[in-house]
């Protein structure tokens, strides 16, 4: 093992493991041109959308089948070399970084929809299928896959991080929508967890163990998902408010009243300004909710009227409607581009993103105090939130040449997470732990629970080769 390398105060000292030439030779013999040691390829696979930096992996294997993944893992295991799965690189928490060295297994070429079972409302896919690709391939059946994290993430990556997104308030997260998996273990064995049955009480729930394990227990090579009928009617609306508190109070009342809203997204005034500049829009520069309603025409009308009445009680303006598919696409594209709009507003910046989630009744308490602290800090930021389920994201925009800004942003993040945990929330609603939230997880889960996680990790991965250095330290 090489000497520790310190990269920044945000992550522990790196302890890079040796990657012997014999392993690289073995990988090239097995995979030929599908194993690359080119620096450009390695660098691409050693980065994600987080604010972290680490040395790139020593090699990248482009897997085209489950057997490819199994063979690559077996070779790595023989040399006790780490394996890091790679989908499309959209992680925000450093999941893809080779913090202990190793090889990257890119599954983006495993991108087939294997079977569609329309009668049972299930679909089975390879891990490199992206959410947009999946919906394009199944739309002719009148069905869709609802989980929408914003980025066109891979299904494998979404499974590994237990992702959710804008419509989790109606359709749930990956936890509720993954029925079964095929996984390559640390020993290079292929196992299956779960079936297409909608429920089972057979043995340990290995599917739920793997969903959200961030590649630390195995590499996902096949996923069976729930899919849903396309709603008969869909309508979307924007409602601006005099304050963030008014928007949040409207959201809380909507959820507590049991309105089956499909999406309800908060955008603060900073984000509105950034999106207007980036997308050449003319949205009212006030805090706003972006909402979407699914159901029958009568049901959608009733839902919208109820929420409009609640919004009016908090000073909300009349709804601005986006009823055609083109209008809705433009609306949600603007929301999903908020990150890129923010980055463009401060060229060259790095972003520290938060991902706290609290019980809906505590949302106003947590969010309003955090906004006040962010405003007082002087750090530029944007704020968006899937507030229907209590999840929201600050993005602190840092000048990498001003170390004090990073320190201040980390202080804001620590205060925010501490507040969320005190309100019985979580440090991460959908991004996963990765590198950035390891310390927070100890506080949230407790030492006993972390020790149990370590016991599971050691039992399933005794050589600690599966994406080591993520979730918790060993």
Q: Secondary-structure map with pairings?
A:
Elements lengths: L20 H11 L3 E2 L2 H6 L14 E4 L3 H13 L4 E4 L16 E4 L6 E5 L4 E4 L5 H8 L4 E2 L10 H7 L6 H4 L2 H4 E7 L5 E4 L12 H5 L8 E8 L1 E2 L3 E8 L3 H13 L6 E5 L1 H11 L8 E8 L1 H16 L7 E3 L2 H12 L1 H8 L4 E4 L9 H15 L3 E6 L4 E8 L4 H20 L15 H8 L1 H14 L14
Parallel strand pairs: 2-4, 3-4
Antiparallel strand pairs: 1-2, 5-6, 6-10, 7-11, 8-9, 8-10, 12-14, 12-15, 13-14, 13-17, 16-18, 17-18
Helix pairs in contact: 1-3, 9-11, 10-13, 14-15, 16-17
Written overview of the protein:
The chain has helices at 21-31, 39-44, 66-78, 131-138, 155-161, 168-171, 174-177, 206-210, 244-256, 269-279, 297-312, 325-336, 338-345, 363-377, 403-422, 438-445, 447-460; strands at residues 35-36, 59-62, 83-86, 103-106, 113-117, 122-125, 143-144, 178-184, 190-193, 219-226, 228-229, 233-240, 263-267, 288-295, 320-322, 350-353, 381-386, 391-398. It is α+β, with helices and mostly antiparallel strands. It has four domains: 21-108, Uridine Diphospho-n-acetylenolpyruvylglucosamine Reductase, domain 2; 113-229, Uridine Diphospho-n-acetylenolpyruvylglucosamine Reductase, domain 3 (2-Layer Sandwich); 231-345, Alpha-Beta Plaits (2-Layer Sandwich); 346-433, 2-Layer Sandwich (Alpha-Beta Plaits). It has a seven-stranded antiparallel sheet with strand order 15-12-14-13-17-18-16, with helices on both faces. Strands 5-6-10-8-9 form a five-stranded antiparallel sheet. Helix 10 packs across helix 13 and helix 14 packs antiparallel against helix 15. It is globular, with a radius of gyration of 22 Å.
């Amino acid at each position: 093992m090489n000497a520790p390398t310190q990269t920044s105060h945000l992550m522990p000292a790196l302890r890079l493991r040796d990657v012997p030439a014999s392993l690289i030779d073995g990988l090239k013999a097995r995979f030929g041109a599908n194993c690359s040691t080119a620096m450009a390829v390695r660098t691409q696979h050693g980065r994600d959308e987080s604010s972290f930096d680490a040395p790139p992996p020593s090699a990248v294997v482009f897997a085209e089948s489950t057997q490819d993944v199994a063979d690559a893992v077996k070779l790595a295991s023989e040399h006790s070399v780490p394996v890091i799965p790679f989908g499309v690189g959209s992680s925000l928490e450093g999941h893809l970084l080779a913090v202990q060295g190793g090889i990257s297994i890119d599954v983006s070429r495993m991108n087939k929809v294997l079977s569609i079972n329309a009668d049972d409302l299930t679909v089975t896919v390879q891990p490199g299928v992206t959410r947009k690709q999946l919906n394009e391939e199944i739309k002719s059946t009148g069905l869709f896959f609802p989980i929408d994290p914003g980025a066109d993430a891979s299904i494998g990556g979404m499974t590994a991080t237990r992702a959710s997104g804008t419509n989790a308030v109606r359709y749930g997260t990956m936890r509720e929508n993954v029925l079964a998996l095929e996984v390559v273990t640390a020993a290079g064995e292929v196992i299956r967890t779960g079936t297409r049955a909608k429920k089972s009480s057979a043995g340990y729930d290995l599917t739920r163990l793997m969903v959200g394990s961030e590649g630390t227990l195995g590499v996902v090579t096949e996923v069976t998902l729930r899919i849903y009928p396309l709603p008969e009617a869909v309508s979307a609306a924007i409602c601006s408010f005099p304050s963030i508190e008014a928007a949040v109070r409207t959201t809380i009342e909507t959820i507590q009243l049991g309105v089956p809203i499909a999406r309800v997204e908060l955008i603060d005034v900073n984000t509105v300004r950034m999106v207007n500049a980036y997308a050449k829009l003319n949205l009212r520069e006030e805090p706003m909710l972006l909402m979407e309603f699914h159901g029958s025409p009568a049901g959608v009308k009733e839902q919208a009227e109820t929420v409009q009445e609640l919004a009016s009680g908090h000073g909300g303006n009349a709804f601005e409607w986006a009823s055609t598919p083109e209008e809705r696409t433009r609306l949600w594209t603007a929301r999903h581009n908020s990150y890129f709009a923010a980055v463009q507003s401060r060229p060259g910046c790095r972003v520290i993103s938060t991902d706290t989630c609290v019980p809906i009744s505590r949302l106003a308490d947590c969010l309003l105090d955090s906004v006040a602290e962010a405003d007082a800090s002087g750090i530029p930021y944007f704020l968006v939130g899937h507030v229907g389920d209590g999840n929201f994201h600050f993005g602190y925009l840092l000048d990498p040449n001003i170390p004090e800004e990073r320190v201040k942003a980390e202080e804001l993040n620590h205060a925010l997470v501490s507040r969320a945990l005190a309100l019985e929330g979580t440090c991460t609603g959908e991004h996963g732990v990765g590198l950035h939230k390891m310390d927070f997880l100890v506080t949230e889960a407790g030492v006993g629970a972390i020790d149990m996680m370590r016991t599971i990790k050691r039992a399933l991965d005794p050589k600690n080769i599966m994406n080591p250095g993520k979730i918790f330290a060993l």
